[in-house]
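From the pipeline queue, job 12 of 40. The input is one protein chain; the requested action is below.

Action: predict structure.
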Amino acid sequence: MRFIERYFKATLKMKMIVFTTVMVTVLISIIGGFSLWYINNSVEKVLGKNAMEVAQKVVLQRDIQINIGKPRGEYRVQLIVEDIRRASNAEAIVVTDMNGIQYAHSAFNKIGRRDINANNSMAYEGKAYISKVSKKQEKYIQAHMPIYNDGKQVGIVLVNMVLPHITRFLTEIESGFYFILAFSILLTIMGATLLAQNIKRQIFGLEPLEIARLLKERYVILQTVREGILAVDSEYKITMLNGEGKRILGIKEDVIGKDIREIIKNSHMPEIIEKGIPEYDREHILNNKAIVANTLPINLGGEAIGAVSSFRDLTEVKNLAEEMTGVRRFIDALRAQNHEFLNKMHTISGLLQLKCYDEAMKYIDDISNLHKETLGFLTKHIKNPSLSGLLLAKYNKMEEMKIKFSIDPSSRVTHGDNEIDTEVLLTIIGNLIENAIDAVSGLERERRNVYLTINDGIEEMEIIVTDTGEGIPDENLEKIFEFGFSTKEGENKGVGLALIKQVLAGIGGTIHVESQIDIGTEMIVMIPKK
């Protein structure tokens, strides 16, 4: 193939025709050669067997046994041997005594003379065997057998069978062989042409060099993108995982061809293949790594043949967007404080205009003490700065919405070697509080209450968020953890609790819900420390 490509641009069809034609020609030649060898070998075995049978007939003749070694015994031996030779296909039968004197021979002039090759036969030593000899461009199968008379060896017999010449045999079948070869080559060319056309249709009319170029381009692109790319087939076997994907998932060995369910225990890709529904910007916990992924099924001819997912490390995304995220939270907190500050300033302005100076001073003292109390509690007991900032932002938001937010005074978040990942805490607590805010936001003011308790133990952390909302019906207690399920109207609903459930599943945590209609809902989360 390289020779062909070197001198002219070979198409897939031409390559397949040349390759298959050469292969078929070589294969038929090998089979033909082997067949000729096998036939020749079989003929040798058959002739050798026949020669031994003829020799057996000779040595069993009593007249031959007793006439070897007697004067004029050769006439009787020759007569018997000649009858046996004519009755068989033997070319020649030679009988000699132990001194090599010939008592029977196809050439009558040699009878009574000594065989010059007498000493070459092991039959004189009492051994019966078959040999192959060549004489005057002829090949013979020769049977050697000792002759005994009353238990004493008196001579030997040699039976020659002419071996058909393989060249003559090949000449006889030559025309048929060439016909079969030509017919096979014709069928091969037709088959290769049809196969090449079928393959070309399946690969969209591309030539192998074009496919190779596209694959090289794809490989370079996939290895240089800053996203992990993972692909599986319909049998959930991994067909591709780029270097970035291995780094994100912490995989070092080669996983191509392995079942994704063994490599990534909680992967959603098998479910995507079965349902055929894509997922966009979905957060997952894979191999204890928080990622955000877009996963799409691959369909061909209406049948799912696999799925592909592009994903990024959520921690890295968070780090890249840390400033923006921090600014957004800061802005939310400032916006809430600004609204609340304006309201308070208007109140103070009104009291001053009414000349209620004592009431204005008392109002200012109350606001100052409440702010110092909340900020002081968070600073003293919540040692995670990001979590403190989140709780302060939620507090200010609920102040603006006229929702009473109470944090259990016994709540603690310490800082140690087994500290829980900050992103996990922010995701769980933030979504729990947002869910509680949604539950009470539409109620009358006295029922707008949200309570938070954080018990930071040695081996696990307990988070309890309670609201005084309308409660959750029993039939919806399991559904609330499904993506997209929500009893509230609006965009981006039905995500928070589902995300919490998924995050907890990835780290071995649990969530328990207790709810009573018109009384409220309590959500208890247990996060193990590892």
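Job complete. The first strand starts at residue 92 and ends at 97.
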